[in-house]
């Protein structure tokens, strides 16, 4: 029996939907050769991460083991799988492999960050194989809501592992490859040690619908529309973008693409040949000369993002185009939980303009890109793994998926971020717990989620901020009166006097009462002044602000 | 033809779901005698109103016309209808009328604020009438998700107006009054000038289901549970709370109420006689001696509120009770848009404890309290108004409801907050636009939503905050070096030197370069220092912070 082991370690994506980053290793404990599958991002929100630009997985563990990393593999070009590739490249410097379309997107990201494009190599589909230390890896096509999504077939001395990537079971996906049951059966026929599997839709009980079902409905809708039609979907859902464009084209409308991502994705799909043709597109400038009933706009911003084309059209003009009464806006998308407010905001703005909004509540104009519960079982049944490790889900999804596997007689393993699983023996076991977390890209700086920076911002948002300035003379006596500046606080409170005046007076009195020992001691002085501000504000306005104390001692 | 007119003016609730406040007036233009229907609140969120405690309608218009106000009527005891009653009492000082259960809740609010309870009078149901100036008003029972919800029958010299309040068409509501079609037909038989009508569920195409349908499903679920069962719903949904308690009781479980609102609502319902009986309740202390499989907890926090009982149980112990593997948590509620993140957070926390969470995705354990589209039509058909004015909705709901009315041959009027409608003539028309808005209750202070206070807080949350202190000597020269304090910003950036040091050095250099004319001029000095901080931070960390400049001049 070898002392080498096969490990699985999620650093992101197992405990949340987003920032996917999974590590596989093989070798002697602590000396494993490593590969990384996906390096994605998650998106910040005002509740938990105000001011943050992107959330990356904390890859400190990988960085410390840079010499052990053989390669990085990207399953597909969604931001939660590819988004951190360029941000982490300096730390890892490992070769990156992806299929043609995914690599096209990765190349763009690398060059935006000034990294060499050739760090990302293009790989063909299964049976083409990449050797990476003890691993042999191939990209096994599977259908999803973006072209060339692939599962990873990871061959190791301890057996074959299948990492599903994001997928659905779709035999008519429009653009991109169909799910090929025979191919999957062939790949899995000699036994699979572990299936590491997408869990997103484990709570959706009905079989998923094919991308092909939305085309006819969208065509019906667009052909019956009278004004301008504007539709939004994820730009990376190239099949959907094409379906929308074709529907517009058939209805005699000229197609306009609005939003950078929309143009980039269509371009990438045509460049790489994953999409063979696309209706003729005109520019926003050309569109101004076209009657509105002959226009169909495809725009970014299906999640109500404030800066995207959809939100700008909802607020007013965008690139010279304005929506009006009688126009139609179609969400060919679903709202990701947490984005409801932004989406509802723009729906109401359109309503104020008299624009008719059609969303997915009918279920006709959108299908999910992830396998529903019965479709997960289709994959379980074809792969027949010894072990199923749910990934790509919050804790509730992982737990439910593990239960589903157990119920089918497959050993389900609930592994969250940081839990290193040893897959070598007959029974998978937890080998180690690794410290993991989130890294915030904040402006141009990467900071730890627990550094306290964002916590302080949230506190200022909740409580407002007060600056107190005191000058102490050379005898350690206050020189003049303390000075208060406020931000984010009401001007007056209970007493109806200006809050600044009340605080300054209370501080002045406290300083007057304080003994020399306090006045000489910076810590005591800071603490005392802070306490006065917070208590005095609590009395006046019912709130304890964040406080910065600046004591300047003349010397 | 009289020169008097009948007006309708929404100050809140027409353009959002929340903070309902509707004004009716009759008299000569500008001299109308006024009544107010509902004074509710809305709830803040981190995106738009961080740190705010409650959102109230801006009632400046009413305050200026205090002498014209005859009375305030509260349709039911939901916070979005009753929540501002005590907060606005000092400004209006008008008599308040409500039915027994609603008044019970209002009395509690008034006494918490130190206002006289007898400002709120109890009124019986239709045909009992209150005379208020030119108006005669009665409370017409209608079913909703709280006891004694009522429509207002408002008789005026210009005809009868029906203000629906919140409602559903439910003939078996459990606790509270059933929808009585005959009574409604009787009330409306002589013609109704206008129906001002709830629009919440206008986008729900299927007929609504009765409260009675959830009981059997909940009983089935609870009787099959093996561990402790904990269920949450809105405490004010007394019928549901009772259904849950009865299900627990039937399954041989002792009932525990957790959360202040839960106890208060059950108490109010029993005190006022709207609920005749309720299963025996034990205290959390007593519960500790009961085997967990014999316990059923009814808890507050169906929307994932951080401080409510549900969230505390998700995090750990609450009042000595802790959930464990094998227990069940039931959401007998739906998640209000915008609250998804909080609800999902606690579901995942329960998942980590091994607690099985049952939510409303099956549709079995919750029904809405609002009339769906076909039920709205039931009311349209019984009331047969000349004019329909949608209320209690965002713009999209109001617009859709007005279109629905128009399609049925009823004149639909889309009136949003601040739009005063003259209902006197044969055709309703906009009489005036009133400035309206939101008032924030922030700690103990009421501030205007546009005062800039909350905007500054949001900016600090997004950008962080820097304080710069400079002392100028009596010759208007800097005394020592400028001093920087930061909050909510990373410690280092591009140069890897401490950000504070970089900013201080850049400020020092700028001060050294500045001419006497700048150094003498407070405005120039402030602007210059601020610009340096923002540019320097942008270079270092890719972010422009909010800045407070404190210049102290020795004299």
UniProtKB/TrEMBL annotation, chains A, B:
A GO MF term: exonuclease activity
UniProt keyword Metal-binding, yes or no: yes
Record domain Metallo-beta-lactamase: where: 18-218
Protein name as annotated: Metallo-beta-lactamase
InterPro entries cross-referenced by the UniProt entry: Metallo-B-lactamas (IPR001279), RibonucZ/Hydroxyglut_hydro (IPR036866), RMMBL (IPR011108), RNase_J_2 (IPR042173), RNase_J_b_CASP (IPR055132), RNase_J_C (IPR041636), RNase_J_CS (IPR001587)
Source organism per UniProt: Sulfitobacter mediterraneus
PANTHER family given in the database record: RIBONUCLEASE J
Gene3D superfamilies, A to Z: 3.10.20.580, Metallo-hydrolase/oxidoreductase, Ribonuclease Z/Hydroxyacylglutathione hydrolase-like
Domain of life: Bacteria
Alphabetized PROSITE patterns for the sequence: UPF0036
Record keywords: Exonuclease, Hydrolase, Metal-binding, Nuclease, RNA-binding, Zinc
